[in-house]
Amino acid sequence: MLKNYQRLRSLLLRAEKRKLLFFTVLLTLMSLVELITLLISFSILTILFGSSSVIPDKATLEVFAQIETKNLVLILLGVATLKLASITPIHIFEAQLKTQISTRLSTKLYEHYFNLPYIDFISSEKAALARNVQDVYLVVERSIFPVSAFISESLFLFGLIIILFATAPIYSLAGVVSIALVGLVLSKMNSTLSTSFGDTYNTFAKSCSINTQEGLNSNAEVRMMNSYDYFVEKFNRSCHSKLNALFAKQIFDNVSPHGLEFILIVGTSFIILLLESSGELVSNNLQILSIVLLGALRAIPSIGKLNASFQSMRFGAATFSDLTNDLSTREILPKSDFSEQELIVTNDINFRSISFGYPNSNNNLTLKDLTVSFKFGEITAVVGANGAGKTSLINLLAGLFEPLSGEIQLGDTKISTKNRGWKNQIGFVPQELSLINATIFENVVFGRSAISDLENKVDNALEAAGLRDFIHGLSHGKYHLIGENGNKLSGGERQKLGIARAILLRPPVVVFDEISNFLDNLSTNETIKILESFRGEHTVILVTHDKNIMEIADQIIDLDIYSSVHSKKAINNKTSTK
To answer: Which residue, 270, 295, 328, sits at the end of a domain?
Structure first.
């Protein structure tokens, strides 16, 4: 557990470490104030009992013995007021520090997932990644800040034990040993259970997130196939198991202090009865017992906090392990080896003996020894059956995948996943378009707000994509909100919006993946006109099954033929319409 804390602490910035140390010091000072409060309370009890034997004549306690009762009470009130006035600022500081650390680490983890190799990203459970980002706060709360509380409460208990031993060594020793033994047993039992509950919670929290996303994403199919009960029951099981583990842990956290309190009261009652039966229950012994009991009762909340801090770290260990592995192995993608200006975008794009296969595919290659060229200014259609490698080809072209062998070249320049400048030269319309819950304008811009003359470029892109009349018919025009994933748009409107986004900067290379899937005949004809307008100025690559779109291609690459014969017969100038 200490190693886990050190791993997470190593991710903190120097300023955050200083603030965390300052917070620990503040908690320690509050523990010192608490000890002073108890010391004054004991002194007042001594005066009230009128017995000097309750608190022995120790140098540490003589200071309070020389102060008048009235002044002692005023000091007690002052210290209590100081404690109360300090509590709120300390907790505000704690909340702000938690927010600062959690926000930064959440953002860092979010960036890490963006920077994963794309082939690893697409094989990941997106719901689990989203949950990991959201759970960073829990890891910070359960793995870093409990250590500060653990340190301050341990120092408080250590000081309290010294005071109690100075007051009544024998009774204090008996009480400390009893509570320590019982606390150790409870802690050991709680530790085992917390680890078990934490593993269960982490497992079912992931499952719950995945089940939630699966059900909501499959809403149409669920309604059509009447499989509502299946998805609800699946979600209910995982959610119930997750919360059951969480609440079971909370039960043990809440019951443990009460168990210690019960043991303390039973032990004190036993000592009183024993003294009474032996005839030794005199006023002085009763006074000493009262003070020891008061100190012990005050120690119970601290023991509870210690236990809760320790078990919180145990409970969050599984989640912690998942997140810190990602946080500590964050890979920053290297900058491009060449600047954007050095790319000669009028060159042809050449695939030289490209082979590619997905991980865990039993060495089955999706593309094998592929050699093709995409001519600048021409339209190339890529066709083939499902699984022929069409999507793999365009992902390789876009620099999202790295080939297992061979090279992709723009003229004499190699294209790879490290070439950020190359990605900026490509306009891409995927088959499954991702739209954000924002305006049409924001969906076209898609975070590229530093573009000059942005308004006019967005208007031109929307017009070129055939959305001018649609935009004019909206009350807010291009600032119309389209809903989550564009649910306020038709399929054709969503696809056209994707085209507008891709051509916003008039990129030299434009890639369309099954562009006609959601278009009717009229929209397809409009799209064909848009595609033909790119000829001569752009390299256009179309993945399509639509024969009408194939007709406008200057070159057709049939991956079915290529995969079977590995020859240039697969590359035809409007001769293959498979």
So the answer is: 328
Residues 93 and 240 reside in one and the same domain: yes
Are 220 and 285 part of one and the same domain?
A: yes
Task: Tell me the CA end-to-end span of the chain in Å, nearest whole number.
Answer: 61
Residue, of 281 and 113, whose pLDDT is higher: 113
Copy the structure tokens of residue 121: 């990203």
Residue 500 lies in domain: 340-572
Q: What is the pLDDT of residue 478?
A: 93
Task: Please indicate, yes or no, whether residues 417 and 370 belong to a single structural domain of this protein.
Answer: yes
Q: Is the residue at 334 inside a domain?
A: no
Degrees to nearest 5, angle at CA 464 with 463 and 469: 30
367 and 319: one domain? no
Residues 224 and 309 both lie in one domain: yes
Q: How many CB atoms lie within 10 A of CB 402?
A: 14
pLDDT tens track for 98-155: 889 888 888 888 878 777 777 878 777 777 777 777 777 777 877 778 778 878 878 8
State yes or no: pLDDT of 68 exceeds 90: no
Q: What is the largest CA-CA distance in the chain?
A: 114
HSE (CB half, 13 Å, CA atoms) of 449?
A: 2
Same domain, 319 and 391: no
CA–CA separation, 300 and 33 (whole Å): 17
CATH number at residue 388: 3.40.50.300
Structure tokens belonging to residue 102: 């959690």
Query: pLDDT at residue 206 above 80?
Result: no
Rounded average pLDDT over 268-291:
60
Which pLDDT score, from 0 to 100, does residue 122 have?
78
Exposure class string for 337-371: b at 16+ Cβ within 10 A, else e: eeeeeebebebebbbbebebbeeeeeeebbbbebe
**Do 319 and 347 fall into the same domain?**
no
Residue 410 forms beta bridges with which residues? 349, 413
Which of 294, 328, 362 is where one domain is finished?
Answer: 328
Token pair recorded at residue 98: 């938690």
How far is Cα 482 from Cα 477, in angstroms, rounded to an integer?
A: 11
pLDDT at 63 over 60: no
- Cα separation, 79 vs 351, in Å, equals 78
Residue with tokens 């680490």: 105
> Do both 505 and 363 map to the same domain?
yes
DSSP letter at 478?
G
578 is a domain residue: no
How large is the angle between the packed helices 14-49 and 283-315, nearest 10 degrees?
Answer: 160
| CB-CB neighbours of 6 under 10 Å | 9
Single pTM value for the model: 0.69
pLDDT in tens, 458-504: 999 998 888 888 999 999 999 999 988 788 888 778 888 988 998 88
Tokens (6 digits) for 338: 């060449």
C-alpha 322/C-alpha 320 separation (Å) is 6
